[in-house]
Amino acid sequence: MSSHYYRLDSAESTLLLISIEQAIPTVIYYGSRLNSELDAATAETLVSDSIPNAMLDSRVNISLLPENSRGFFGEAGLQGHRDGSNFTHRFELTEALRETDKLVFTATDDTAGLQITTTINCDSDSNVFSWTHSLVNLVDSHYTVNALSCPSIPTSLDMDQLITLHGRWGKEFQQQKTELAAGRFQINNRRGRTSHEYFPGLFLGQDSTNELSGKAFAAHLGWSGNYCMMIESLSECERYFQCGELLLPGEMILAKGQEYTTPTLYTTTSNNGFSTLSQQLHQFARNNILPTWTRSTRPVHSNSWEAMYFDLNTDSLKELVDAAHATGAERFVLDDGWFMGRRNDQAGLGDWQVDPAVFPDGLGPLVEHVRSKGMQFGLWFEPEMVNPDSALFREHPEWVLQYQPYPLVPGRYQEVLDLSQPALFEYLFTAMSSLVAKHKIDYIKWDMNRDTLNAGSNLHPSQHKQVTAVYALMSALNEAHPSLEIESCASGGGRADFGVLQHTGRVWTSDNIDPIERISIQRGFSMFFPPEIMGAHIGSGTAHLTGRQTSLDTRAIVALQGQTGFEFDSRLLNNTQRKVVKHYTDIYKANRDWQSSAKLWRLPSKQDCLHTQGLVSEDQSKSLWTVTSDGSHLHASAGRLKLHGLIPDANYTITCLNNNLSELAGFARALPEWLIENNLTLTGELLMQMGILLPYMPPQTALLLNCQKSSTKIYE
């Protein structure tokens, strides 16, 4: 048999592939960097498994595009037909191009009249690989694509510990752990956005893998629409991972010469646990995905929503701006309620003109007042939505995304607009762009508050076009206003992925800012996304979504895990509370620049209720650590905290930055000895191997620790 062998290396990983008898290549190794070399003959020997009884007479390999015509009984990578014929395919490799950090394979099926191109890119610095498939129709008749997966990746049977993210509104990014066995684990998302329900990504590990050690694999589909993600185990071979866009019936029909490209799949591997996977994804996002403005200093936000809801007027807003500025805010965001007819959530969406009933003199006086404080100004939009009670809907009911013979399915008193329609696209761009230009708006909070159903346009399915049109509208605004920043909000964290983040650079992680709920929400978010793009605001003493009451210190410390801000009404703070908020805001400002390139370490939870994470600077000279408690620990003491990511032979001084340390002291007869002085200098090795003693931490408390490289000599 003839075979060809291909290799792609990053700084930490090696990818090996083989093509046998001109078949589409198969991944034969993807893991830690190999020093050894292989030739094609040896590689073929290593993948030529036994041929079991009662099976097909040939060996079956899981290629980048698995094909039933080659004996594969799992999910074919391409599924489609030509008016019922050409329902299967058998591609032959015609070209393989190798660049330093890239492999491109082209394969053709002359019988089916199709060409498939597989592109694999490797970012050597971050150890993240990017994978896509592109399909071209080569002949005159139309080809219907039912499904085209991203390149399929085999996974070994010992990688059977699966972590996925699930949730709902107000409880996003919840980790779910599953032990894989025979059969299939599959997620189908049909909600028209990344969704609260499922996240398009997963972590895989062995039984012994944890945050800090063990073999691990991560995958993420960078797409903000419908998708399918699955892991399947077949008796003929090991497991394989496959994902791609979930197309509506008849949504992707290719005429001659037309092409369909899958969303990009991003993967990375590690032998050092799950936190290392996250660090690699964070570095990749910072260097390759996020807009450049995310590398600038991230301002402290003050948002009007929970402070005022729809009860808006210029004078009250100016008072809120003054109070927020006095507390440390640097950007003021006017949330929902400023546009025509928007006195509640049942009317006005789509009419993006300033309502003179609320702002008789327009937004100008408010914007000028914000600027007079040296603050930036942001504005809320929900461009993809319309209320039936709006001028836009009454004038253009045909602009709604719908399958017209059937009635609309309302959600939150609103419908989804069909952004693939050029006239609507132009209306939205003009309405938004003119306001941005007129008021020199710095920031848009871009919301999307409902899922899509029956996503039709002119009686044809249009969910794919809807997602690409949203990207195009964001891109058009970015191009027209290069300094404009956009936040992705979708009832909180319902649209967060590497697709939308190429146009936005901040995610409103959840509408739930109860700090105890935020512990798990933000921990799940951090698996894939860097902390500096995570919207994390300090809420009111009584959380609006849960009714839970928590201390101001706990709320502020949890908010310091991301880009911090205020959701509370700053006007209601007394002097003591204002000093507390300013204390933590000043800590954020002193550390935010180095945190934008920091490594995040999630430490294993202690006693099922103590959750620790730390941000360590790129040069390992400084770090901030948060310990949060969401329950009562079984043992009378909280135990030791062992830091991570420090230089072993460097000296570090560690201090507690809590404003309420004296209150924490009251929950035990005495604090740990080092906390009484609140100053301890140890080597990095001792901090990582022996650690420090934590104080007793009752439920709903939080600890903030600062660790700085020190020139202080120890033991003198």
Automatic annotation (TrEMBL):
- Name of the protein described by the UniProt record: Alpha-galactosidase
InterPro entries, A to Z: Aldolase_TIM (IPR013785), Alpga-gal_N_sf (IPR038417), Alpha-glycosidase_related (IPR050985), GH (IPR017853), Glyco_hydro_36 (IPR002252), Glyco_hydro_36_C (IPR031705), Glyco_hydro_36_N (IPR031704), Glyco_hydro_b (IPR013780)
Sorted UniProt keywords: Glycosidase, Hydrolase
One short Pfam family name for this protein? Glyco_hydro_36N
Which BP terms from GO are recorded?
Answer: carbohydrate catabolic process
Q: Keyword Cell cycle on this protein?
A: no
Q: Any idea where the Glycosyl hydrolase family 36 C-terminal domain is?
A: 615-696
Annotated positions binding substrate: W169, D335, D336, R412, K445, W446, D447, M448, N449, C489, D511
Q: What class of enzyme is it?
A: hydrolase
State whether keyword Hydrolase applies.
yes
Q: So what does this thing catalyse?
A: Hydrolysis of terminal, non-reducing alpha-D-galactose residues in alpha-D-galactosides, including galactose oligosaccharides, galactomannans and galactolipids
